[in-house]
Amino acid sequence: MRILITNDDGINAPGLEVLAEIAAEIAGPSGEVWTVAPAFEQSGVAHCISYSHPTMVARLEERRYATEGSPADCVLAAISDVMADALPDLVLSGVNRGNNAGENAMYSGTIGGAMEAALQGLPAVALSQYLGPETVGLADPFEASRRHGAAVVRQLLDHGDWNSSDDFRLFYNVNFPAKPALGVRGIRVAPQGRRKDSRFSVVPYTAPNGRRFMWAQGGSQQAPANEGSDVAMNMAGFVSVTPMRADLTCHASLERLSEALDRDGQLQEADPVR
């Protein structure tokens, strides 16, 4: 198997080393693992691409490249240039330092990389490691994902919906709980949740030269979320798996809204200009 790995924490991030181990185990001795990752940290860039300026791609060593762009840029660079002669069979993004469950998914560059792969027709999985009180004292905070990552990806390869006929191909968002490897209770498929009373915000700051800046900060990652969600499963010690796609349509509202607008929302023709 030919696997592309990327991330949003940057080419030198420890989570990318964990992902390389996972990918090597999945690819097997006759497979290939290619790395195309951001040269610098790109956390919080979501699915952004460098549309208005060029992006440099640098070869660091065999099958290892860095770009001056986002995770989505990295995927585009891989399929359009670095691996154009033989596309990857699978794209893995992560392992992110910190969870991408709940509302974090909307901001995540890790998920952005997997989403771009899916939009390009490639199977993709985003992987993230929840951090918390039980990981603080671990020599390896990625212990849970390092130990269980390959097994989770294998199960998705065996049982995931990789041949959906929908216009938007599915990809998978995986979050490992903030537990030692032996404390992980299993895998649960769960929808994306929302932490209660926990939101991103900004902290204003005045520099010595008088200029005004702001620092973005997330809310509490230990805040509870709706029952059965990815956050709730992670907090209970399970690996969460969430099928996702790049379709933001609220399908549950389409029929009702369409009927209402057809009935009451016809535009009136304007009086002709005289």
UniProtKB/TrEMBL annotation:
Domain of life per record: Bacteria
Binding site for a divalent metal cation: D8, D9, S43, N96
Keyword annotations of the record: Cytoplasm, Hydrolase, Metal-binding, Nucleotide-binding
GO terms assigned for molecular function: 3'-nucleotidase activity; 5'-nucleotidase activity; exopolyphosphatase activity; metal ion binding; nucleotide binding
TM segment ranges: none
Reaction it catalyzes: a ribonucleoside 5'-phosphate + H2O = a ribonucleoside + phosphate
Keyword Hydrolase appears in the UniProt entry: yes
Pfam families, per database record: SurE
GO CC list: cytoplasm
Keyword Metal-binding belongs to the record: yes
Cofactor detail note: Binds 1 divalent metal cation per subunit.
Domain Survival protein SurE-like phosphatase/nucleotidase: 3-196
Record's subcellular location: Cytoplasm
Cofactor: a divalent metal cation
EC number: 3.1.3.5
Enzyme superclass (EC): hydrolase
Family label: Belongs to the SurE nucleotidase family.
HAMAP family membership: SurE
UniProt function note: Nucleotidase that shows phosphatase activity on nucleoside 5'-monophosphates.
PANTHER family with a match to the protein in the record: 5'-NUCLEOTIDASE SURE, 5'_3'-NUCLEOTIDASE SURE
Protein name (database record): 5'-nucleotidase SurE
Protein species of origin: Paracoccus methylarcula
